Structures are given as structure tokens and as C-alpha cells.
Amino acid sequence: MAFKQLATALYIALSFSVAQAAITKRVACPDGKNTATNAACCALFAIRDDIQENLFDGGQCGEEVHESFRLTFHDAIGIGSNGGGGADGSIAVFEAIETAFHANNGVDEIIDEQKPFIARHNITPGDFIQFAGAVGVSNCPGAPRLDFFLGRPNPVAPAPDKTVPEPFDSVTSILARFKDAGNFSPEEVVALLGSHTIAAADHVDPTIPGTPFDSTPEVFDTQVFLEVQLRGTLFPGTAGNQGEVQSPLRGEIRLQSDHDLARDQRTACEWQSFVNNQAKLQRNFKAAFKKLSILGHDERRLIDCSEVIPEPPNVKVKPATFPAGLSNKDVEQACRATPFPTLPTDPGPSTSVAPVPPS
């Protein structure tokens, strides 16, 4: 009897495996080059190739990537407590309304760059914004391969104002906004701010456009989590704007919100935990970004087309180091539970960070 039960169980398991294999059988795409697990994903290959060549300068981790990735956040987080808005492309469809919101200052430039791509491909604005962001990040060494889901309908109304957090908002306000938008935990908020490792500011201080948030804006690494915890310096002839705290590195900008989150007891230990922990950054950022990218949608109604997103460059990312002339004594330690990691210091004179050049 036991043997018959075991044989039956094995037969059921084998049948299930065969059925699953049949379900996930790949289909040939009409382009004759690619295959996909779902035929609906086939159209994305041509869109991917188009934006890589004509939006991202042949696959560079440059300004258009930074701005496209910023747009994914500004579109998605614009969601009201009644479920309106979210990652639906409303920021592009209702551009005249949403780009007038103070928090969306400057996003009109990348929206206008993306509009011709949306016009020539059969894709909704919500899908395109999230797809372009995920493809763009894949050009950055050290980045995780992000998920992408297809099937967002066209937006029907603009997102509400005051739904995008700003650099001068308090930690309490920022955490509350993320919780209201999608029940994000403080840990998920910190993980999402890993995006600042490949970010630059044009409008926080318009006198210094293209100013990066860390010394390695072309690499998706943990350097931003280290440098935000260093004591700031006000350089001669400079003055901080609202939402800005001076960095110890000339040519680098620090957001007030990042500075505060790195020092607030609700988030300080999580912030510090990313310092020199590339694997955790990749893992946690990928999970938090997936949640952000489908805000306002039911994942079960979307199609997983993550396979179309390119694999990021297979390179070993340099471990976090203190910029030249700085060390552990320059850290403003905020986490009470764990000592700050001991890291080497780069050789040479004091570090000066170059602006991200416009494309």
C-alpha cells in the first residue's frame, strides 16, 4: 500500500512538472530574433532596443537614465489615499497639471524626451515610464536586474498635488507619505533611496546643475550611504538652498531628507546597514522598486515581462571607501546598536566630484 501511495504521489508530481513546463513554454516573437514566455512581451524588445540606442546613448548610465529613473518615482508615488494615480503615466498624459506641482520641478524635460518613443510604439505611458526606468538602470554597473510588469491602462485623471515627498520634508512626513501611498515600511523607504547612488540634482540648487549625490554617480553602489553620514562642510562662496545640506566633497550635493533619514533613530541603523553591503542593496532595492512600480495596480492583472530587461554589466563593484582625506572620525554616527564599519580611505588629495554632463 505504501509503495502504491508513493508511486501515485510521484506520478502527480511528475504530471504537475510537465504541466508547468507546458505553461512556461517559450514562444517565438514575430521579429524572428527573440523568444518570450508570454507573447505579449514580444513587442517590448523593439522598444528596448530603440530607447537603448536613441534615449540612453547606446546604453550609457548617464543623465537620461538618471532622469528616466527619477520619473518612475514621481509618477508612481503620486497616488492618493483613495487609490487615484499611481504608476499609471498620468504625469505624462496630464503633464501641464502635474509638472506644475512644486515637487515635480524639472521632470517636464524627460517627459518631453520620452513622448516620441511612446507615440511610435504601442505602449501605454504608465508602462513606458516604468519600462524605460528599468531598462535605463540596467546600464549601470552594480545595479540589480529590475522587474517589469506590462498591462497598465491609460490614466483617467491627474495625480493629486502634495503626494511627492520633497527634500525639505521631515522624516515623519516622508515615512507617513510612503505608508499612505503603499504601506511602505521605513526599511523599504531607505532601500528605495539607494536610487540616489546614480542620481544628480538639476533643480535643488539651479546654480549647480548636474550635481551628483555621491562620488560615483555612474555606478550603482553603496557609496551614497557612506557619504551622507559624513560631516558636511560649507565651502567658501557657497550657500545651501532649501532642501540642501553641504557635503564634505566639493561638487557633491546632499539632500536634507537624506541627511535626516541617515540620522533619525527610526531609520539610522537601516541606512548604515547598506554601507559596503552591495548584495543587500541589490536585493532590497529590487524588492522595494517592484512594489513602487506597480502602485495602483493589481499584480495579478499584469504580465511579468522582466525577462526583457537586460542584465546589468557583469563587473565587480569597488567596495565602499572613504574619499581621500576622510576616515571614520568624520562619520556622524547615528545608529546606536551597531558600530560603523571600518573602511579604507582613497589615496590622494581631497576628492572633488565632477558634475554629470548633459547628453
Automatic annotation (TrEMBL):
Heme b binds at residue 196. Ca(2+) 1 binds at residues 75, 86, 88, 90. It comes from the Eukaryota. The keyword Disulfide bond applies. The record marks 70 as: Transition state stabilizer. Pfam families: peroxidase, Peroxidase_ext. GO terms for molecular function: heme binding; metal ion binding; peroxidase activity. InterPro entries: Ccp1-like (IPR044831), Haem_peroxidase (IPR002016), Haem_peroxidase_sf (IPR010255), Ligninase (IPR001621), Ligninase_C (IPR024589), Peroxidases_heam-ligand_BS (IPR019793). Residues 336-359 are annotated as: Disordered. Residues 69-339 form the Plant heme peroxidase family profile domain. Binds 1 heme b (iron(II)-protoporphyrin IX) group per subunit. CDD domains: ligninase. One of its GO terms (biological process) is hydrogen peroxide catabolic process. The active site is at 74 (proton acceptor). Disulfide bonds join 29-42, 41-305, 61-140, 269-335. Its cofactor is heme b; Ca(2+). Its EC number is 1.11.1.-. The keyword Lipid metabolism does not apply. Keywords: Calcium, Disulfide bond, Glycoprotein, Heme, Iron, Metal-binding, Oxidoreductase, Peroxidase, Signal. Ca(2+) 2 binds at residues 197, 214, 216, 221. Residues 1-21 form the signal peptide. SUPFAM superfamilies: Heme-dependent peroxidases. Belongs to the peroxidase family. Ligninase subfamily. This is Peroxidase. The gene is mdcA.
